[in-house]
Amino acid sequence: MNHRIAFLPILALTAIGFGDMPYKPNAYQQNDWFAEFGENLGSYVNPASIAEADQIEVGAGVYRTLSGKAGQEFVSAVHPFGYNHTVALTYFENGSDIEGSNASYLENAYILGYALRMPWGAPGGISHKVALGVNATIFQYDPFGALGGVQYAYGADVGLVYNPFTASSMGQLLLGVAVQNALQPKVKTTTGSYHIPRNLNASLFWRGFNRKLELAGSASVLDITHESTEGGKGNQIVPTGRITWYVQPWAGLKLKYSKQGYPVGGITLNVQRLNLFRYLQIDVDMSHDALTSDNQERGFVWNVRATTRLGPTREERIGDARYRRLLIEPEEAYRKAMQLYLARKFLPAAYAFGVVTSKYPTFHLVDQAAFYKGKAFESLRMNDAAQTVYEDALRKFTDSDLRPKYMFQIMNIYYKEGKYDDASRLHQQLVNLYPESDVKADADYVMGQIKYLKRDYNGAIALLSPIVPGNGNYPYARYTMGVSYAGSGKMSEAEAAFQNVAELKPSNSAGQEMKDAAMVKLGHINFGKPMMKKAAEYYVSVSTNSPHYDEALLGLAWAFLKEKNFKGAADYANAIISKTPNSLQVPEAHLLLGYCAFFAQNYDQALSEFDKVVDLAEKKASSIQDMKKQRGKNPANSPEYAAVQKEAEELSDQLPTDRVVEKQAQLRSKFDAVYAKVEKYYEFQRDAERYEKFLQDKTRIVKDAKFTKATVINIKAGSGGKKSGPSQQDLKGLEVE
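The structure assignment produced for this chain is given below.
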């Protein structure tokens, strides 16, 4: 039982009464049956040696005497992490029984090892060829129950390995030094206690000649801090050596001189790339201690061990990690962000795209992530944040194909904020730099809208007319062309432009709304004889859920009135009142009902309707003026919203740590509060054009109602209360607006 961790033979023999035995330092030697320096499982030889493990390695061994009554078992596993880190767990089990006795001897060791291969740039210029290691050991022992039960002792080893070269020409050389039991375990005995000796171990390993020859050797200086009170001499040198010649890549012959001082012969066999294991090695060693000495403590001894390697290598793990970090992880992060964006969860999407741009700057879609991050902010009307993102992207991604898109989005922000001169300047830059870009048509569309708003109808038409079907802006461009032609007095060209829109098959609600608006315009253009029937057909084709439905009903009511179909006109006017009670067309619907009653000589009803016209028109005008006062200033331009945008943009550039996520959640409540105000403002702005038109029409409506009311009063007074029908002249001047 003279092996390194079988450190209690003297204690055991003393406990069972075999008499006192002298202290024998050579009983405390490292075990060279299960692993040696140069092999990856021997952390107990030198803890730094496991740094050479390239993949998960597991080994198990059995050591026995011929009788099988004395022996030891060994299991060890090594796991590399990254390029520089390795951990190992080793277990030794040693036990024996005494014939004629129920007592048993227990001696186990549990060793946890760690090795660090020093990285490039390590302090002091230490290169990655050096590895440092440390073991933490727990000894568990029970010498036949002599100490009243299982006892424990604790120790630690330290080691260093230097790998000066690994090359095909010179082979591989490892040099190592270790202090075993640097922290000495303290072992109890029946008479006291003693420390397991502290040993110094120097080792060498070389593999060369195309991996055909291996040489290994070491010298251990035992008990280098010898205590005289524990007996013995200490500082004894114990050598060992091994040579292995591989007659085939898969088979080798071994000859070794053991720490116990006698030769050992053995064979080693290996197979590679099995289904379960990537490498499997079997070693068999045999010896007899009588070969060099008459002291036959063991007689014939043998050892069998199996070593297997499995799983990916360090390089494969690192490569996979890099692949995940550089491609898979950013792909997943980008996909998650896009899912949020498509679900219209724009603020979380902006943060998620920010993770991609911040954490994965080399990702091949990082420029696209920046684009959608800006779009997410834009969708929340956070134009300041969006513009910052686009401008930052222009600085970072100088070779990106998305540069014209960044420029267009900034131009579009200027347009939405009424900064027409800045938008015009950026449009000119974009056209000059990227004349063949996909977004040129979009930029021309926005510039055409600006020209229209500035009453430059010819300029608007010139920019909008090249936009062809298939472009998402085509229906909007044609509609603007129609109103531009109408503003220029070119009604036939206006009708053709509106007809282009009306003939489209819309794919969404916005397209349907634009088509309905064009139908109403076509109805207005064709209003009057002999095209009244055609106008009515356009009005009727407007969908009932369209925001232009009330205007279409009003056109139909006027058309029937012009055709002297007073019942039909009244029906459509009543439809406006019943189906769209909040419509701005309601006052004019009552005006039409008043006309219908007037021509039907129902003067009392006519007077009632004309009074409603004046009352409702004044109330709606007053309500619009109140809204204009309340929403006279865009909350999106307020310092409060600017601060929210700045904080949101800054948070989107930070990795989602717990603290950052907490800040994002805190910002959400502030954002929601101010965004509600912004949305109310834009809801008002969406209807602002209709409000302005109503305020312009309100004067005409009230004037017509009051004039016709006075006419009714005069008719009633002149006829002495008798009914007298209106003349044909009374129909003159009634026109649809």
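Interim note for the steering committee: The first strand starts at residue 56 and ends at 65. Confidence is low (pLDDT under 50) at residues 1-29, 727-737.
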